[in-house]
Amino acid sequence: MFQTIYKIFFLFFITNIIYCQSVPAIQGSVFDEQNLPLELVSVAFLKQKDSTLINYTITDSNGYFSMTDVPKGNITVQISFMGFNTFKKNITYNSTPINLKTIILKESPSVLDAVTISAVVPVQVKKDTLAFNASSFKVNPDDNLESLLTKLPGLEIESDGKVVAQGNQVTRIFVDGKEFFGGDPALVLKNLSADAIEKVEIIDKKSEDAELTGVDDGNKEMIINFTLKKSKKNMGFGKFAAGMGLDSRYFSNLNYNKFNPKTQISLIGKFNNINITGSNIQGFLENANGIADEDDDDTNNTPKPRSLSGYLKTEVAGAHFGHEFKEKVDVNADYFYNLSDNQGASSSKRVSFTNANNFDFASEDTFNRLSKNHNFNFNYKHRANKNNRLIVRGKLNATENISNDTKNGTFTNSNGELTTTNQQNLHNNNTRNTANFNIDYYQKLQKNGRSFNTGFNTVLNSQKRENNQYTFTVRNLHKTTPTEREIETVRDEKFNNNNYNFNFRYTEPIVDKHYFKLQSFLRFKTEKEDIYQLKNTITDNEEELLTFKYKHLENSFQTRFAHNYVSPKLNIFSALELQDLSRNFGIITEPSITKHLFFLNPISNILYKPKKGHKYRLAYKKVIRNPRKHESSTVVNDLNPFYIRQGNPNLKAEKMNEIALTANVFNFKSSTTFYSRILYQHATDAIVQSIDIDDSFVRTRSYQNSGNRKVFTANFSLSKKLKGLGVRYTLKNKNAYRTSNSIINLELNDVTSKDFFVGLLLENSNKNVVDLKFGADYSVNNTNFSLEEDLNRTYRQQKYFSMFDYDLTSKLNINTQFDYIVFSDNQFSSNTTLPIWSAAFSYNLSKNKKNICKLLLIDLLNKNVDVYRRSTTNYFEETTSESLGRYVILSYTYKLNSKPKKQKRNNA
């Protein structure tokens, strides 16, 4: 099946490339009045009826442009360039190629600034900025910015919420050039209305140091800036939405914003019990998958997905304030409160193996988890001085998590005999307070190219955990005399973890385009824990008291001597890093253990930009990783009698060599996006898990330095239009090959994991009336174990999805989405299919679209459950969790101040 699908995609790709070699539908050249060609001129094709954007391109270095993907009908060709009058021409295209020949642009006496787009320019390219006029793209009245971004060429929102622009992940989002809720993309996109935006700017932003000195250091970040409409400034705007449904389901959302050139104020709120953590109605049609798991021994060390399993109640409140004291001197602050109350049940099946015996584990679990989170962010930026910059950032966080879990498990041996049952009741109260403070200062010196910057960062973390666990175990059920054991444990833990980081960077120009750089990093980490544990073995009438204080101190000093070659197309950075590492750890009342190491680490980075929109990077580095506190701890954590954790104080540092090749290609003429990344990592003295499982199925985990760990990944993504069809396709492929070791009952286990993913998305690129989207994903994981070849695992997942959004009338909109997911696994007897169908009907009650009524039909087939499967060092696991299932909600949305107030005329 894999080979068949791969051949289909390859044939599809090659066919499209051949098909693209077609004759341009419309072509021409743009020159100025001195008969010189103009490059990067915006050439837009608009519908004559409503001036909505059909497609766009830009001119090349010869002033030439061409467009093959043009629909039949009456079209306006609009040519715009900074400092020149806009050229317009109405044409009728009927499949006969049109040559507009040479077009002369006349200089305009009123030159626009570098980032301004007038109401009639749908797209513009300027230096490192690509800007779109938002009015050229159709959005529904209640859409948020997330929906607007999905319609822009070269932009994509992935399933995990990450925003990707021109193949690069967007790290921050601004509104009117100012940070909004800390620049967090998720918060910004879900809490501002799309119809409030005039233009969207995609900026390949240079680093603070490069902007100050004018010397490009190759370090850039992709950001998005939303510019508000003039009608939304100097007045409040936002929306309120609320809904009620069957089975006492409800939700309410509120966001209010008031921006002027100096001050920005925003408020957001949310309250619902329908498993929604986002703040927009479109989020109702999104489904989460995966569950959380308390074990931290995933073979690939990948973060475990979180889900909305069970029944979730959410409360959110947030406020943002920003003020500009003077030009380029501003402060931003925001507060965000989030409460989630999650209850539900799940069932798990686990196939475990050792070198002595294999066994199965099954459990039925119920959970009740309450989380309260307070988050405060602030930043101060002073960029008014042309020779220096000061940036101060801070973050305060207070979190309380209370969980109550009940787990009923059964162990079955390789003969299928039930041998052990255990019941566990767990209560955990976890409070954490974190403070993060960061200050960076940049100074440009007198000599051109000479500069330095210095910074200080500290993270202060205090945590308190109160654990209560009750375990009742019955063993040897298949024998005549089973044994019982009842244990009750109380464990109170206090942690204080503090990090202090200092950095200094100095740049000295040598000769033209060559620079010497000195970089120093000093890091201090202190981790302390205070443990009180009382274990009561009720069946034996025994008590065991454990109290201790533990410390883990780590210092790192790194100095880099680097050479940097900088040119418009090529940036080469090479450095030799001297790293001094030291650790001091152990129980405070006992002699401490000290480790001291010294390393030489080479670093190299080559960035090549042959032309605008094309970026290739080759990077190599050697990284040293000291053992973490829990990996080298000298004490044992036996809170869970079935899962005992202990460290290894004799661990050595892990050394890893990493090489990565990245290609980002964005064609401004055709809005074609290509991204590819190849990564190879090789770790020696790899820190791996050592698992010991006894005859009573008690699992003890420790760590050892054993062998090598290798990782090879190759990913690519291509997004391009199918000529003449008005359809854009996105083709993705991800491949991973990982080898690592683990130790199971003192025997080495070589683990090899191979992952393959391929996905195809088709969507119409001309979204003025109808939005269509459909596609398929296919992934397969093969995991092989040297210890038990009979348990080699193949896990497949297929997902087919479609979405239809249509304006039946100017007031009535229908949206429906259908997903069909197939899970198959050779280690589990049953395969799982999961069809999910949802729909929404939206009706505008007023002409100004201020009042919107929506009927939401979620999970119409009532099949929405969460399924999560994974492989670890010595077991496979499948977990199925109950979910909210089918519900219906009728909602009402009111848009606040959606129409500008009329200005009173002064009678002179």
From TrEMBL:
What Gene3D superfamilies does this protein map onto?
Answer: Carboxypeptidase-like, regulatory domain (2.60.40.1120)
In what residue span(s) does the Outer membrane protein beta-barrel domain sit?
Answer: 444-894
Mind telling me which SUPFAM superfamilies this protein's record contains? Carboxypeptidase regulatory domain-like (SSF49464), Porins (SSF56935)
Q: Please name one Pfam family that this protein belongs to.
A: OMP_b-brl_3
Residue span of region Disordered: 402-432
Spell out the Low complexity composition-biased ranges: 419-432
Ranges annotated as biased composition (Polar residues): 402-418
The cross-references to InterPro entries, in alphabetical order and at most eight, read: CarboxyPept-like_regulatory (IPR008969), OMP_b-brl_3 (IPR041700)
Signal peptide positions are none
Q: What is this protein called?
A: Outer membrane beta-barrel protein
